[in-house]
């Protein structure tokens, strides 16, 4: 019995939860669908992530506008993936901020990624006709960018913690209230997508750098908000264990000269007891193992996913 491709059969609407995490800090989570957030400055708003279409972004903004009515000065893109970027037009943002590598990746593979993600996750692309084209950052940086929120609100620090979910992930740190927007570098009870990842870096130094913030609340890329230090630590630990389990299982098969589909079966089997029921687990695993196999082969720069390559890898790695 072959599994339906990626999330193509996942068409049931998720319940969206709007949360106020602190003074002027907002998040919208949706049972494992991509999260978005916002931080209020004295006379502007910073939005974190754009969703897949302007229509979907507009739904988030209609929640947000019930709480804050200031213009969006900054739209922060945590990384290049289409479900995080293509809704940007809805924000009418003065400045769109991302990492240098995110701009590079959009130029290199933005079109292919758009087609790939729309095929994998059609439900997230509701209102696809409202997308005006690729989203281009207007300001990029390599290490750190600090936004003064004004008044006594302190700083929002945007930081690159090393290569991880992609080559150019950034996190948003609300220093005064110790809240971290972690993008897809940390997931809370949702499976990891690692199809464009750097597993070795992510599972070590990058997650160490994220833990070092000492956040009291963390908004990951998917899943519920982690509130309190114990929940934050658990989300980071769960992310690391997922990566280390994949590295161990796929690495074992790779070292002994096995086949990639054996590695897929081993990694899936090892992760399934703990992670198997979490959102997008089955969707992600073939793409994850394919990328990790390349990484172990010494392919440093992730290969580009196309709608066609998605299907080939999916068919290659499923059970007979
Ligand atoms: Zn992503």
In short:
By secondary structure, the protein is α/β, with parallel strands linked by helices. It has 8 helices and 13 strands. It is globular and about 60 Å long.
Q: For the CA atoms, what is the radius of gyration?
A: 19 Å
Share of helix among residues?
A: 25-40%
Per DSSP, what share of the residues sits in E-state strands of 2 or more residues? 15-25%
Biggest sheet details:
7 strands, mixed
C-alpha geometry = globular
H/E series, N to C? Answer: EEEEHEHEHEEEEEHEEHHHH
Spans where pLDDT lies below 50 across 5 or more residues = none
Ligand species: zinc ion
Q: Overview of this structure, please?
A:
There is one protein chain. The chain has 320 residues and is an alpha/beta fold. It has eight helices and 13 strands. The protein has helices at 54-64, 82-85, 100-120, 199-211, 229-255, 260-275, 281-296, 307-317, and strands at 17-22, 25-30, 33-40, 45-48, 72-76, 95-99, 139-141, 144-148, 155-159, 171-174, 179-183, 217-220, 226-227. The strands form two sheets. The protein has a seven-stranded mixed beta sheet. A six-stranded mixed beta sheet has the order 8-9-10-11-12-13, covered by helices on one side. Strand 8 (144-148) and strand 9 (155-159) form a beta hairpin. It is globular, with a radius of gyration of 19 Å. The N and C termini lie close together (8 Å). The model has no long low-confidence stretch (mean pLDDT 95). Bound molecules: zinc ion. Zinc ion (ZN) is lined by residues 79, 81, 165, 184, 193.
Keywords:
7-stranded mixed β-sheet; alpha/beta; 320 residues; binds zinc ion
């Amino acid at each position: 019995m072959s599994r339906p491709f990626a999330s193509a059969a996942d068409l049931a609407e998720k319940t969206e939860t709007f949360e106020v995490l602190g003074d002027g800090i907002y998040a919208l989570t949706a049972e494992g669908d991509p999260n978005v957030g916002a931080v209020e400055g004295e006379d502007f708003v910073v939005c974190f992530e754009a969703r897949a279409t302007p229509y979907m972004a507009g739904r988030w903004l209609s929640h947000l506008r019930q709480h804050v009515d200031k213009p969006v000065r900054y739209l922060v893109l945590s990384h290049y993936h289409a479900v995080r970027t293509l809704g940007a037009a809805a924000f009418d943002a003065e400045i769109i901020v991302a990492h240098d590598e995110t701009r590079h990746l959009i130029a290199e593979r933005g079109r292919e990624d758009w087609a790939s993600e729309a095929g994998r996750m059609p439900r997230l692309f509701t209102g696809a006709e409202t997308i005006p084209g690729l989203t281009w950052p207007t300001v990029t940086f390599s290490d750190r960018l600090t936004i003064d929120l004004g008044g006594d609100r302190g700083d929002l620090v945007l930081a690159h913690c090393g290569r991880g979910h992609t080559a150019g992930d950034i996190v948003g740190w609300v220093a005064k209230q110790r809240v971290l927007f972690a993008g897809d570098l940390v997931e809370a009870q949702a499976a990891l997508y690692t199809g464009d990842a750097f597993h070795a870096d992510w599972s070590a130094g990058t997650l160490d750098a994220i833990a070092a913030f000492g956040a009291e609340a963390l908004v990951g890329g998917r899943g519920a908000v982690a509130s309190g230090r114990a929940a934050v630590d658990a989300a980071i630990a769960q992310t690391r264990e997922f990566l280390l389990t994949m590295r161990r299982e796929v690495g074992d098969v790779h070292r002994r000269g096995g086949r990639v589909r054996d590695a897929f079966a081993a990694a899936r089997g090892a992760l399934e007891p703990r992670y198997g029921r979490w959102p997008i687990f089955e969707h992600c695993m073939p793409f994850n193992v394919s990328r990790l196999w390349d990484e172990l082969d010494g392919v440093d720069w992730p290969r580009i996913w196309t709608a066609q390559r998605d299907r080939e890898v999916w068919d290659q790695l499923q059970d007979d």
